[in-house]
Design goal:
The chain is of the alpha+beta class. It folds into two domains: 144 residues, D-Amino Acid Oxidase, Chain A, domain 2 (2-Layer Sandwich), CATH 3.30.9; 130 residues, FAD/NAD(P)-binding domain (3-Layer(bba) Sandwich), CATH 3.50.50.60. The protein is 35% helix and 29% strand. Strands 1, 2, 3, 6, 7, 8, 9, 10 and 11 form a nine-stranded mixed beta sheet that branches. The protein has a three-stranded mixed beta sheet with strand order 4-14-13, with helices on one face. The longest helix has 30 residues. The protein binds flavin-adenine dinucleotide (FAD).
Length: 284
């Protein structure tokens, strides 16, 4: 078991649905108690769009905090029924696996101080010519800024909605790939790719953590069915079909946002082309 290090995200948002899913899988209703809440989402998406305030229901926590809350030591040591299957949760994957990435955008995450009177328990999302900004409060006067596309400095300089909320920006806590990515194949005889080993999502349509949990539930069901005698190629095909369908939906969601909202037309064109190429490859 060789942990592969990637910089944990200092702040992720978990929607109410994601919290309920994770609590039911871990059979713990208190997992997200006491965390900063997000109750309002303020959005300015599209050239010269007027900001709109929408109700929202989520909590904010760091990935490190999430791992601590999810895995008290005794849980980790519980061994399941012996099986010949391997679930890959991170690289390395079998040599036959290829990784398809859609676009090359990166995200930087920056700690910020918010102006006095900034909307508490809120997040702000703003599209700009060369990317987008996502600001999350995580306590009184404190927040995290996610800058996707161009660097944070440039995006904040062009910002009309997010920049006025911020009084001070700290040093970036990390840069992360922020484009959809899928491994292919996603499974084979005796192995399944799951979570970030299988797919990565554009944080614009986030929910990556809940996706990883759903995939893990399906992976366990597939292994259980195979161990009970179901045809391996049928259950593997089912796993691939379900994950690929979810990934396609994610791409369509992103396209729906990226077309009107942001990026120079070149960026949107590259994006659309890579989706078309993938669909074509899928049909072959
Ligand atoms: C910029 C950005 C913002 C995001 N914002 C959000 C958000 O707001 N909300 C959200 O839900 N998601 C968000 N995501 C997505 C989210 O980070 C991922 O979807 C999620 O971390 C996937 O979880 P995972 O466990 O599959 O993979 P990872 O988080 O990558 O974790 C893999 C873990 O497995 C461990 N590991 C590796 N090999 C082994 C092994 N053999 N045995 C045991 N352990 C092993 C590694 O050490 C690592 O800790 C964001 C992603 C990015 C890039």
């Amino acid at each position: 078991m060789q942990p592969v290090g990637r910089t944990p995200l200092p702040a992720i948002l978990l929607s109410e649905a994601a919290q309920q899913l994770i609590c039911s899988v871990f059979e713990r209703s208190d997992l997200f108690r006491g965390l900063p809440a997000i109750r309002t989402r303020i959005v300015a998406w599209g050239p010269d769009a007027a900001p709109v305030a929408l109700a929202h229901s989520a909590v904010v926590l760091s990935e490190r905090e999430l791992l601590v809350r999810l895995a008290p030591p005794e849980v980790c040591d519980q061994a399941g029924e012996p099986t010949r299957w391997t679930i890959h949760t991170s690289s390395p994957l079998p040599a036959s696996v290829e990784s398809l990435r859609f676009g090359g955008r990166e995200a930087s995450v920056v700690p910020v101080e918010l102006k006095t009177g900034a909307e508490p328990e809120a997040c702000w999302i703003e599209s700009l010519e060369r990317g987008w900004l996502f600001l999350i409060t995580c306590g009184v006067g404190q927040g995290w800024l996610l800058a996707v596309g161009d660097d944070a400095e440039e995006l904040v300089r062009a910002s009309r909605l997010v920049a006025p909320q911020i009084t001070h920006r700290g040093a970036a806590a990390g840069r992360f790939p922020a484009t959809p990515r899928i491994s292919t194949p996603l499974a084979g005889d005796g192995w399944l790719a799951c979570g970030s080993a299988a797919m990565a999502f554009d944080p614009l349509c986030g929910d990556g953590t809940a996706h990883a949990v759903r995939e893990a539930v399906l992976a366990c069901a597939v292994i259980g069915a195979a161990d009970e005698g179901e045809a391996v190629d049928r259950v593997v095909a089912h796993y691939q079909a379900r994950l690929t369908a979810g990934f396609k939906r994610h791409l369509e969601h992103c396209l729906a946002y990226y077309r009107p909202g942001t990026q120079t037309s070149g960026g949107a064109r590259n994006w659309t082309r890579s989706v078309r190429e993938w669909r074509h490859a899928e049909r072959r």
